Amino acid sequence: MAYEVTKPDEQWRAELDPQEYAVLRQAATERPWTGELLDEKRLGTYRCRACGAVLFRAETKFDSHCGWPSFYAPTADDAVELIEDRSLGMVRTEVRCARCGSHLGHVFDDAPQTPTGDRYCMNSVSLSFELVDAPAPDDPTGGR
């Protein structure tokens, strides 16, 4: 697939720290229960750490008890790319950023408690979190 954002490998290495590069560009996995976004509960947007594309919203995040941030749906049908992954002797579905092709994690259909039944199990290091601005306490419009 041709991606909107493409960079030579040397540029990705220069822009990402070693763990980000290993996960985003080499499909590594961060250790469970270690990601900085695992317990993030504030309203906001989750973006691809490599290219900044909007991928998930806080409203779709849920506690799946798997050790990685989990979401039940991406922001749009074309925000992520799903690819069959036969590594590690099993069949899984890899999730990549549709804008730059970076590895984000995997999706599983084992979350019946969610509206979609899906669990997008993402590496924290593959995402950046952008807090949604809360309305000022004296704003009568509630920020609208």
Automatic annotation (TrEMBL):
One of its GO terms (biological process) is protein repair. The keyword tRNA-binding does not apply. Gene3D superfamilies: Peptide methionine sulfoxide reductase. One of its GO terms (cellular component) is cytoplasm. Residues 9-132 form the MsrB domain. Its EC number is 1.8.4.12. Pfam families: SelR. Keywords: Metal-binding, Oxidoreductase, Zinc. It catalyses: L-methionyl-[protein] + [thioredoxin]-disulfide + H2O = L-methionyl-(R)-S-oxide-[protein] + [thioredoxin]-dithiol. GO terms for molecular function: metal ion binding; peptide-methionine (R)-S-oxide reductase activity. InterPro entries: Met_Sox_Rdtase_MsrB, Met_Sox_Rdtase_MsrB_dom, Mss4-like_sf. Its cofactor is Zn(2+). It is an enzyme of class 1 (oxidoreductase). Belongs to the MsrB Met sulfoxide reductase family. This is peptide-methionine (R)-S-oxide reductase.
